[in-house]
Amino acid sequence: MRRHIVRLSLLAFLIAGVSIFGGSTPGRAGAQGTNLLDNPSFEQPFVLEVRADGGGFVAHGWSPWWYNDAGDEYDGPEFKQANIEVDPNRVRSGEDAQQYFRPWARHLAGLYQQAQVPANSRVQFTIYGHAWSAFCRQGDDGLECDPRNSHFGDGANPISMKIGIDPTGGTDPFSDAIVWSAERAVYDNYELFSVEATAQGDRVTVFVYSSPLYPAPVVNVYWDDAALVVVGEGSADTPPPPPPTGDTGTTTSGGVGTIPTQPPREDGSQWHVVQAGETLGGIALAYGVETQTIRDLNNLTSDIVYVGQELLIRPAPSEAEATPGATEEAGETTTPEPTPTVEVEATPEPETGQICLALFDDSNENGLWDEGETLLAGGTLSLEGVISDSYVTDGVNEPHCFTDLEPGDYLASVTPPESYRLTGLNHVPITLSGSGNVTLSFGAAPGEAGSAGEAEPEASVGESEPAQGRLQLRANSGLIITLAAVAGVLVLATGGGAFAYFTIYKRQAGEEDEEEEGEEQRADS
After folding, report:
1. pTM of the model
2. Residue 476's closest CA among 383, 353, 393?
3. pLDDT (0 to 100) of residue 301
4. How far is Cα 182 from Cα 164, in angstroms, rounded to an integer?
């Protein structure tokens, strides 16, 4: 049986104006003891999730979340597949686990999944997790790190890890409704995290969370073997209290979450009383201040906060600041009248995108469109999905773009001209989530049809899950992707000079040459 293993090595992710979120498939409600999660062991396929400030490959059934501020405080991590053949220590069971990382940066990130449960049932969420978060050791030739020992050299980087359940089924990782486990720092070997909550209906959402204290040279987090089970019956938990009345509001950024803000006091100072499930980074996000500002104002030495703690957000303004806009003339105070504004309702532009396809003569049969290789005439480029169409190449006017495409699932495929065979994949699924611009390049060389690129069965658009090992692209506004689809290597270039390199290893039992080639490629990665 053919196995497909997807690898990601992200050399740069500088895609501007992209906001992409992948969905997850809820689990099914079941009897007590039944695992209600989809893909609880984080196995293949891994789906490409991209956003301007981070992204990567995420195990199907799960969705990533992260907070990326406008300054240097937090960066979005890179999500990828951890495979047992690359590092057995990072996979607890099966072949894969979920990994995310960002060296020399702090992150506030994790994963979530919605699941259907028996109404108002008591549920337990468990998952195994650990971090490799280290300062390493300064050697003669640079930093020296031990991949299995966070405490090697200058010691481990403090990291907070926890898991939670939103009994309302929401997807906001900063929601007051989330019931969180205690925060722990777990290094190098998997340990079990556990938390319980009572559903407030027939759907809950489970979360994993991590945040390192410092931007260390190594900041990697791993999760594997999750479970959501019914442990009892009961009435719904008391809903969280409403936000205080008065001059209050909420701040939202990047779709990550909202925390109700609390009004200024009589002297003009603004304080926040920590509620259940809130984090220091989330509080800073809600009030529009830097996390370090809150640390300095409250003399905090870590990011750990506790329920009921009062945090100073903004000190009381000086007397001059307390009366902005006022002017005094001859002992009289006047306030300028506000300038009237006229609201004009903007006409939303239609969110359509395009998918461009090309077929080239792959003379060296390496699957890459190298300099000197020309376009190939007589092939058929096809697009199936929300809008379906096809085009016969002339070897001059390609790539050919299928334009005005509505968001949805598409399948791009190619049929080479007679007496040619494909040197790579013959179809690639694409999820177009907005005004994306995706360009795919397929290679072909003289030979009998079917000798390459047809090992995978044809897929139908709209499958509940992509076939194992199949790359799925999710594109939104401003994203330009160029993909050389080949049997061994997928090269993806993004607009603005960013570049990412993806390798798909395909191995057939008994094919020793491919086995050796795969081992060499894994060693290089």
Report:
1. 0.48
2. 353
3. 73
4. 9
